[in-house]
Amino acid sequence: MDTEQKKYIEQVFQSQKKFFATNQTKSIDFRIKQLTRLKEVFLKNTDNICEALYTDLGKSRAEAEYIEVNMTIDEFDYCIAHLEEWAKPIEIPSTPSPSGEKVISKVTYQPYGVTYIVSPFNYPVQLTFSPLLGALIAGNTAIIKPSENTPNVANAIEKVIKEAFSPEYVTVVQGAIEENTLLLSLPFDYIFFTGSPNVGKVVMRAAAEQLIPLTLELGGKSPTIVHKDADLDEAIQKISAGKWMNCGQTCVAPDYIYVHESVKDELIQKFKEYLDKTYQGGSLGKIGKIVSQRQVQNLAGYLSDKPENVVYGGKYDVDNRYFEATLLTNVTWDDKVMQQEIFGPLLPFLSYSDIDTVLDEINARPKPLALYVFSKNREFSADVINRTTSGDAEINSTLVHVGNPDLPFGGVGNSGLGKYHGKYSFQTFSHIRSVLEVI
Questions:
Q1: Is residue 209 part of a domain?
Q2: pLDDT band at 27, cuts 50/70/90?
Q3: Which residues pair with 311 in a beta bridge?
Q4: Is 251 a catalytic residue?
Q5: Residue 95's pLDDT is what?
């Protein structure tokens, strides 16, 4: 990082501090006007955004529009429609003061101030604009650092932000570790980070030094349990929708499957048939690109560890960053593929006869961002949910909860800290302040 970039970062931070101090962002009308402007510019740049997503991640136009564009716009519309309702002070019934005077108590929402948003590479548009939306509906300013691993998307995001806003309100800082380190040294009022647990620890450590409140959206090995009474065809379709999207680079993707031993062979055979039918000629190059050649090699290392475990797929192309949808069986917790979040299109299968053993294994490890269970027995599913901990959970489905603005989304423990989406984004980026008045 050169001197000019360092100087710019420090200056733009101070300019946002000064702008926030004018109190303009506290106006609901101002917020709605700015969000409407951002939506217009975002939509105008849809082609550029989708082209960048294809270049960096190999996302098809259909996938880019569905996940990255439409979900973002839907959340914009939802939040704009509800902002005035969310921002109203809530009057709380109060008893008289000790001296007998009448008391009025209210819960109010205040913006924090200048926020720092660090977004990841896997859904670089949706996971930039969704937290940004939360920051702005709550009345904050924002400095955004998009991922350096998706440079074309980062440029597209910067183009949108520059066209929509002045830098003292919202701006983008490009860069990598040096820039992030400098930004984390500044006294932000709130930090929102999406990424890996390892980098999340760095961010939390920096925030702790200055007692800055923050949200961490991380990840982990999200388990999927397929019980003996599950509808296997439905389970395969829904697990596939969650696993192969974005070439497996989804923080809430099913990381591995625990399947009841009585249906294991049938499930794997049906999975093979489903993949053959869905990706005729193989899935290589049809499910997106891995973010880097290095990550392709990392994923290939899981296969070379125990090549006999590969029962479907396994092909990859380092130069073009392609990796095939791959099934692995006879996997154990000692295998390399089970030591950390996969973040790629590899799907390991473990089998069980006793659900208690499965839950003990899951609970003995870091808490995942999501947990999925497939069963026709609602009591069984409820018991699994009740006896495990995860950021969120779904029964007979995957990933759908992420797109519901009425539900809070976020992790727990190693998978994250804090919740957002819809009203929960407004609350996350607001200081909830109690006000008591004696009259």
A1: yes
A2: very high
A3: none
A4: yes
A5: 83
Q: How many domains does the chain have?
A: 2
Q: Judge if 213 and 276 occupy the same domain.
A: no
Global pTM value? 0.96
Decide if 373 is inside a domain: yes
Owning domain of residue 365: 223-403
User: In 159-171, which positions are buried (b, 16+ CB within 10 angstroms) versus exposed (e)?
Assistant: bbbeebbebbbbb
What is the Cα–Cα distance from 21 to 187, expressed in whole angstroms?
15
CA angle at residue 401 from 399 to 406, to 5 degrees? Answer: 155
Instruction: Tell me the C-alpha distance between 374 and 134, whole Å.
Output: 33
Burial track 193-227 (b if 16+ CB lie within 10 A, e otherwise):
bbbbbebbebbbebbeeeebbbbbbbbbbbbbbbb
Catalytic site residue from 63, 247, 251, 324? 251
pLDDT for 2 equals: 85
Give the strand order in the sheet containing 114-118: 170-172, 141-145, 114-118, 190-194, 214-217, 416-417
For residue 130, is pLDDT > 80? yes
User: Is 217 an annotated catalytic residue?
Assistant: yes
Q: Are residues 199 and 306 in the same domain?
A: no
pLDDT, tens digit, 9 for 90 and up, residues 76-86? 999 999 999 99
CATH number at residue 431: 3.40.605.10
- Nearest residue to 417 (alpha-carbon basis) of 144, 214, 191: 214
Helices 71-87/28-44 angle, 10° precision: 180
Give mean pLDDT, residues 172-198.
97
> Does pLDDT of 439 surpass 90?
no
Instruction: Please report, as a single letter, which amino acid is at residue 83.
Output: L
Predicted confidence (pLDDT) at residue 94 exceeds the cutoff of 90:
no
Residues 153 and 60 in one domain: yes
Claim to verify: residue 357 and residue 425 sit in the same structural domain: no
Tracing tokens 């006793």 back to the chain, one arrives at: 354
Residue 85's nearest CA partner among 432, 430, 426 is 426
- Same domain flag for 319 and 229: yes
What would the pLDDT profile of 404-437 be if each residue is shown by its tens digit? 999 999 999 999 999 999 999 999 999 999 999 9
Question: Which one of the listed residues 217, 324, 341, 394 is annotated catalytic?
Answer: 217
**Domain-located, residue 408:** no
Position 377 scores a pLDDT of 98
Going from the C-alpha of 337 to that of each of 319, 342, 394, the distances in angstroms are: 23, 7, 24
